[in-house]
Recover the amino acids of this structure.
């Protein structure tokens, strides 16, 4: 049955698919709000789920309702918050507030502030919700620390050590321990100076880097560095001891980011301390760079067209588009992507589009390729795609630019000659046979009096049906949702997660 739903959805037209998705999303919100309201009522009657053999509402949701643990936590927290503030149900139904936002804000809502806080939280991302929570409940700066992490197999000669750096976003006040004072600690140890020799099986999993709002305009940053980076940090602490007496890694981190940001902006955005404007066109010269008549360099050729985009144009475009993809949908919605941005020619360079501020705009890599497909068509678009590295298991991620590496692999393949020969033989044979038989069949049909239309339909229908079926099959095989990622015909992982929630 699920496969039939998948086939039905794939057969929808573009507009019908988008309309259907909006309808389903609205129904899912309504169902979620109704479920949260009923869970709120059940939370007030604990005897009901206790009589069913469940020791808690969480157990009832995960076992009886078959919700995932994350889904159960979000809905239980939202249900308990809705019992205190019913306004949350209306915001959830409208889609302006998510279950995750309610779970994060629940313990910070009071009778006095819940209306203003919920108003600020409408249509906010999780990161923005965390900033709002930092304003509601600011925390003191944590001291900067550098600690050595345990290693699985230490080697006397080539021992790879790492350091965990935990710091606020600006300079702190706590001193940093010296390299000799750095100790190896386990995940549950907090006593300084106690060395622990962990077994390889007891090593904790590598934590993800943390950038967390801690207080208004203050952030907690935590990540892991290697031995070489740790030595650079120690060296900078020694060299900057006059400017940063306590050797705070937070202050060094801030200075390093400032230098790196200036370098990257100069490369990516064409930033400059003293930006120069374009050279003016002097009297007697043309913009193409030709020499005025009567001079000894009259025969020099004009400047060749180049894809180079001047730095002043890059600066103006990034400033105008505010570092965000400037693609606008027909409905007037602007793309919100701020990563993998590219400089896009509105009038393509191949169509003599100039590298001017009016013609250059920011696009994320997906919309850049999308507009290229609209303008140049499938043939040229396929040639553009051949310059990138593709993986059937990562179709929804950014593609690294490969240049002519794909063509080099193709030309250096030992089976290329055999493949070309087989293709030539197949094409020559099939085209010749089809041409002769098709011409003879056309002559025979031409002399048929009655039943010519029926004969044409009988002959042409298999010719049309076969490529359509083949195209549908390949569209299923290469689909990033359920084609290349499905294993042994199992349902796609994303659909399974939606069903469990």
């Amino acid at each position: 049955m699920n496969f039939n739903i998948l086939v039905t959805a794939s057969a929808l037209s573009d507009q019908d698919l988008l309309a259907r998705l909006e309808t389903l999303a609205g129904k899912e919100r309504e169902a979620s709000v109704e479920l949260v309201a009923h869970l709120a009522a059940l939370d007030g009657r604990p005897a009901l789920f206790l009589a069913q053999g469940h020791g808690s509402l969480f157990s009832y949701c995960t076992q009886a309702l078959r919700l995932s643990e994350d889904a159960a936590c979000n809905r239980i927290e939202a249900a308990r918050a809705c019992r205190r503030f019913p306004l949350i149900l209306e915001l959830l139904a409208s889609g302006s507030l998510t279950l995750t936002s309610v779970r994060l804000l629940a313990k910070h809502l009071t009778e006095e502030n819940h209306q203003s806080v919920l108003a600020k939280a409408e249509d906010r991302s999780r990161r923005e919700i965390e900033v709002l929570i930092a304003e509601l409940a600011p925390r003191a700066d944590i001291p900067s620390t550098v600690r050595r992490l345990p290693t699985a197999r230490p080697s006397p000669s080539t021992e790879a050590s790492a350091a965990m750096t935990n710091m606020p976003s600006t300079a702190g006040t706590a001193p940093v321990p010296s390299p000799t004072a750095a100790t190896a600690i386990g995940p549950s140890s907090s006593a300084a100076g106690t060395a622990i020799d962990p077994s390889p099986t007891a090593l904790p999993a590598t934590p993800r880097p943390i950038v967390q709002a801690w207080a208004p305009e203050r952030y907690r940053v935590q990540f892991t560095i290697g031995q070489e980076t740790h030595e650079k940090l120690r060296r900078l602490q020694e060299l900057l001891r006059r400017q940063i007496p306590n050797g705070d890694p937070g202050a060094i981190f801030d200075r390093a980011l400032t230098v790196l940001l200036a370098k990257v902006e100069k490369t990516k955005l064409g930033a400059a301390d003293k930006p120069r404007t374009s050279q003016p066109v002097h009297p007697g010269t043309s913009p193409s760079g030709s020499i005025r008549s009567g001079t000894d360099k009259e025969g020099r050729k004009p400047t060749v067209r180049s894809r180079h985009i001047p730095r002043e144009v890059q600066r103006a475009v990034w400033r105008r588009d505010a570092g965000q993809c400037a693609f606008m949908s027909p409905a007037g919605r602007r793309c919100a992507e701020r990563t993998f941005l590219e400089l896009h020619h509105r009038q393509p360079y191949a169509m003599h589009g100039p590298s001017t501020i009016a013609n250059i705009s920011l696009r994320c890599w997906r919309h850049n390729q999308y507009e290229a497909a609209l303008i140049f068509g499938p043939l040229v678009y396929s040639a553009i795609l051949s310059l990138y590295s593709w993986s059937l298991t990562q179709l929804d991620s950014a593609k690294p630019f490969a240049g002519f590496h794909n063509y080099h692999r193709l030309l250096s393949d030992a089976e290329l000659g055999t493949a070309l020969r087989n293709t030539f033989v197949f094409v020559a044979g099939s085209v010749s046979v089809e041409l002769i038989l098709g011409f003879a069949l056309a002559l025979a049909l031409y002399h048929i009096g009655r039943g010519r239309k029926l004969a044409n339909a009988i002959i042409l229908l298999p010719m049309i049906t076969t490529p359509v079926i083949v195209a549908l099959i390949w569209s299923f095989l290469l689909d990033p949702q359920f084609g290349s990622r499905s294993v042994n015909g199992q349902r796609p992982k994303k659909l399974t997660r939606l069903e469990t929630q």
